[in-house]
């Protein structure tokens, strides 16, 4: 089943999210006063996977995003991002103890996102994000939207604008490079003809794709998308799927997405994490999660007793129950 | 006719100075939605630094006028920019994210502090500077003995303002820094998520605004020849008015508003009464805002739904 769902990608015979995670969320808890939005949540995002975070409304999905991208300081827990080679547990423990935000050594690095604030999470750790509602810079042109996302290189190369004003050659090269990259992305999302139009003038689906391209222009390792398919028509939705697959396969960027459209989720996800009331209720490959009675119950709004009944019935048939689903054996169900 | 032309030249000169200060108000408002009431004092400090630099150069025996002008302009811009950066860092940044009125109140406090600081350290008496740039171009020699003259000082002020306006528009529209500023203006949170260092961008906005205020201060010093610790208040209120009149948040609007206020004041003083020139300027502001609530070039505030 999972083979047909991920035609271009290896089936989840081994779970990348346990072996080579790019993001590890451990014991994440977020309380707002008396309300516990996320309760001791742990999950991993595999490097080079598309991971979907799903759950009913109010399950805490966006809160997880807000913790990962530095909008909220988690009440408890660790959010670890890895780049490059897999670090040793000792190195991670040492960084956690040291109180530093990150350890970087060439291409390799470990970053404790809960200690960093938002612009550093993007600029240093390499996490990019989009929102449920579109937040393009509407008054700027389509091209400029993509250039803003690359300004870190530009600012350094321009000697913080002074070099840019007098037109240093290094800055010119860098400006050209930034523009080339923006144009390449515009061609990829099919908006090259609209490059000089204000971003606010684009159609809704085009704005969605532009937002993703803009996030990609920050050179992320992890791309977090909050409901990217919301409000798209079926054709746009399928274009989005292609774009996300190409980001995974061509750019090698891991994707973490929140999505309500189960069609999209099942078609493109390698790995699904299901939340309900701030807790993880399922975690595994797409097919396994889809057939998990807890997930079905959460989505269909079954009473807790009924879930217990369903679970009991399942446990009688198979003593390990849904626990095995966490190993991601897609063919189980 | 000659009288009219002369008033026009005077008005444009005064308007240029207002416009340069107004840009500082409008840029800061654009990026953090706050009225920096201390900006008029930044202008006053610019004038004092220019005077200090001038006296220092005179003591050193540097008298070649173009060189002196260049140096005092550069020194005033540099040090005033440091003041602008410090004010933001000390008084406004810690309050970012606080309730809306908090930075407004510190801005007023900062304004009073700076006035008093200069009053205590520099003395309350007016500081004169003998006119440095004399002469001018006689444009018209009217029959009634009325001469229309564009003094060299006025020429410098107008030319410098035009050059700075062009340079500024280029920075805002073409450079990476300008793009960041526009991005922060539209959505600070999103800009930060794209890796833009929002705090640094805001600091640079204050630095740029202070630099322009320093130019205005230097020009004011050279044009009028007297400064005191209180000039920032009046000029600040006028420039703020100019920014609102032009449409706060809009750079060309600030310049246009500055020119409008300068011209209204000058013509009113020339044709009616000097005493009521401020009344005229503010009345016209009120009338414009009744019919164009977002100012001459301002974008109407669209409620986000």
From TrEMBL, chain B:
Protein name: Branched-chain amino acid ABC transporter permease LivH
Bilayer topology annotation: Multi-pass membrane protein
One Gene Ontology biological process: L-alanine transport
Gene Ontology MF terms: L-isoleucine transmembrane transporter activity; L-leucine transmembrane transporter activity; L-phenylalanine transmembrane transporter activity; L-valine transmembrane transporter activity
Annotated compartments: Cell membrane
Organism lineage: Bacteria, Pseudomonadati, Pseudomonadota, Alphaproteobacteria, Hyphomicrobiales
GO cellular component: plasma membrane
One Pfam family of this chain: BPD_transp_2
Keyword Aminoacyl-tRNA synthetase annotated: no
Record key words, sorted: Amino-acid transport, Cell inner membrane, Cell membrane, Membrane, Transmembrane, Transmembrane helix, Transport
Stretches that traverse the bilayer: 12-35, 42-61, 67-87, 99-118, 152-172, 202-223, 280-298
CDD domains documented for this protein: TM_PBP1_LivH_like (cd06582)
Family to which this protein belongs: Belongs to the binding-protein-dependent transport system permease family. LivHM subfamily.
Main location: membrane
């Amino acid at each position: 089943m999972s083979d047909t769902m991920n035609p271009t990608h290896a089936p989840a015979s081994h779970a990348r999210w346990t072996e080579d995670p790019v993001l590890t969320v451990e014991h994440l808890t977020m309380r707002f006063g008396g309300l516990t939005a996320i309760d001791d949540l742990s999950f991993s995002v595999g490097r080079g996977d598309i991971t979907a975070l799903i759950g009913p409304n109010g399950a805490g999905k966006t809160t997880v995003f807000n913790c990962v991208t530095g909008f909220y300081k988690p009440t408890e827990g660790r959010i670890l991002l890895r780049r490059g080679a897999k670090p040793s547990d000792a190195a991670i423990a040492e960084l956690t103890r040291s109180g530093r935000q990150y350890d970087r050594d060439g291409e390799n690095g470990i970053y404790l996102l809960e200690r960093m604030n938002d612009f550093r999470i993007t600029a240093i750790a390499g996490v990019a994000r989009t929102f449920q509602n579109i937040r393009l810079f509407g008054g700027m042109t389509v091209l400029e939207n993509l250039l803003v996302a690359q300004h870190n290189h530009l600012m350094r190369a321009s000697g913080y604008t002074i070099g840019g004003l007098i037109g240093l050659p290094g800055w010119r090269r860098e400006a050209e490079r930034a523009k080339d990259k923006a144009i390449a992305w515009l061609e990829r999302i099919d908006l090259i003809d609209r490059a000089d139009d204000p971003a606010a003038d684009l159609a809704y689906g085009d704005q969605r794709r532009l937002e993703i391209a803009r996030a990609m222009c920050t050179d992320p390792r992890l791309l977090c998308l909050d409901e990217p398919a919301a409000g798209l028509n079926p054709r746009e939705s399928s274009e989005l799927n292609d774009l996300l697959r190409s980001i995974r396969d061509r750019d090698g960027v891991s994707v973490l997405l929140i999505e309500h459209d189960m069609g999209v989720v099942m078609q493109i996800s390698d790995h699904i994490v299901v939340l309900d009331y701030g807790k993880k209720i399922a975690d595994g490959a797409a097919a396994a999660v889809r057939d998990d009675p807890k997930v079905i119950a959460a989505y269909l709004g079954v009473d807790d007793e009924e879930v217990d009944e369903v679970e009991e019935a399942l446990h009688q048939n198979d003593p390990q129950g849904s626990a095995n689903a966490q190993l991601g054996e897609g063919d189980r169900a | 006719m000659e009288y009219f032309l002369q008033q026009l030249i005077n008005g444009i000169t005064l308007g240029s100075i207002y416009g340069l200060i107004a840009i500082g108000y409008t840029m800061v408002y654009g990026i953090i939605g706050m009225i920096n009431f201390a900006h008029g004092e930044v202008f006053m400090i610019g004038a004092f630094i220019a005077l200090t630099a001038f006296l220092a150069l005179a003591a050193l025996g540097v008298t070649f006028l173009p060189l002196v002008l260049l140096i005092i302009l550069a020194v005033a811009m540099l040090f005033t920019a440091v003041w602008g950066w410090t004010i933001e860092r000390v008084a406004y940044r810690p309050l970012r994210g606080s309730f809306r009125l908090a930075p407004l109140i510190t801005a007023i406090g900062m304004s009073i502090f700076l006035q008093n600081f200069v009053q205590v350290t520099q003395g309350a008496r007016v500081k004169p500077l003998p006119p440095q740039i004399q002469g001018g171009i006689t444009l018209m020699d009217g029959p009634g003995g009325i001469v229309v003259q564009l003094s060299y000082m006025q020429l410098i002020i107008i030319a410098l303002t035009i050059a700075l306006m062009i340079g500024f528009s280029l920075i805002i529209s073409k450079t990476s820094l300008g793009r960041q500023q526009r991005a922060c203006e539209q959505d600070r949170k999103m800009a930060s998520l794209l890796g833009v260092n929002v705090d640094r961008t805001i600091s640079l906005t204050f630095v740029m605004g202070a630099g322009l205020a320093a130019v205005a201060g230097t020009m004011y010093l050279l044009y009028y020849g007297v400064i005191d610790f209180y000039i920032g208040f009046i000029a600040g209120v006028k420039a703020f008015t100019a920014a609102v009149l032009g449409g706060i948040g809009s750079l060309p609007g600030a310049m246009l508003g500055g020119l409008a206020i300068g011209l209204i004041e000058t013509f009113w003083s020339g044709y009616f009464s000097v005493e009521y020139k401020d009344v005229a300027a503010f009345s016209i502001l009120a009338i414009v805002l009744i019919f164009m609530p977002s100012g001459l070039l301002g974008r109407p505030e669209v409620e986000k739904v």
